[in-house]
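During the no-cost extension, the postdoctoral fellow (Dr. R.K.) reprocessed legacy sequence entries with the updated structure-token encoder. One reprocessed record is reproduced below for audit purposes.
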Amino acid sequence: MRAKTLKRCKRAVAVFLAFFVFLAAVLIFLLIASAAVDRDARVLPSYERIDLKEILDKDKSEWTDEEFETVSLQTGVLSKETLLEIENSKLFEYQSALFFEGEVRHEVIAPTTAHDYLYDVEEDHTFSAPLVPLEDGDVIVTSTCHTYGWRNGHAALVVNGGRILQSVTLGVDSEITSANGTNGTPFFRTASNFIVLRLKDADKETRKEIADSAAKHLCGVPYSLAVGIFFPKDQGLEPKATNCCHLVWQAYKNFGYDLDFDGGPVCTTRDIANAPDLEIVQIYGFDPLKGW
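Re-encoded structure tokens follow.
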């Protein structure tokens, strides 16, 4: 009897130790993954900040191609057309934001998901970066949303004169929010990184047509992580399920553009950020020379 009892105790201890080792391994993995995520939360330019005063004191009509490139790399505004829209005096703000180090902090936005934002310790408030003038059809992506060690990121589509169409989380249908609302552009402006993308070789009317179609057909669609796995990837004009990246992908796919860089069953924010059909208008929190 004692032998059997001792045997049971040994088994119980072995099970307990195995469970303890498993939990310790999971904890170590999560700590390592978390540290890796923090390293990727914000990347400063790989080059030095320079004084732009001499260039910005001149009218843009006098800028050389080299000066346009210099200002682009110093501000993160990579579109010449967009640079022309922004007042010279305002470009100093873009430069300061691009080179601002700050402190990366985390905000829990869902039970398993956190969002990285930039905090100004000296001024004791959340830092907000300037955002280029947006146009309908523009895409905004960020890598700052992460679930444990996986940077799933977030993506949104600009519609209706600067409002944001997005699919946010489980239990919430895709919706159009105010640009200045909680889930609007302030979410991206306070993030530790973001990229604004625009369709290449297309006029405003074409981009607006894509945005208008998305606003009409892709609003009110249930959220699902299983799109491309248990739901078809291409669901046409009336999808039954979507998520942030799929919504943007589907909006453009309906007009013949495939924004999935690697063409896999699931489209990710990084796929969209590297889609050949899109050009970077503004990059922030990533090295402009390397992108994402």
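The first helix runs from residue 2 to 39. The two ends are 65 Å apart (CA to CA). The remaining legacy entries will be reprocessed before the final report is submitted.
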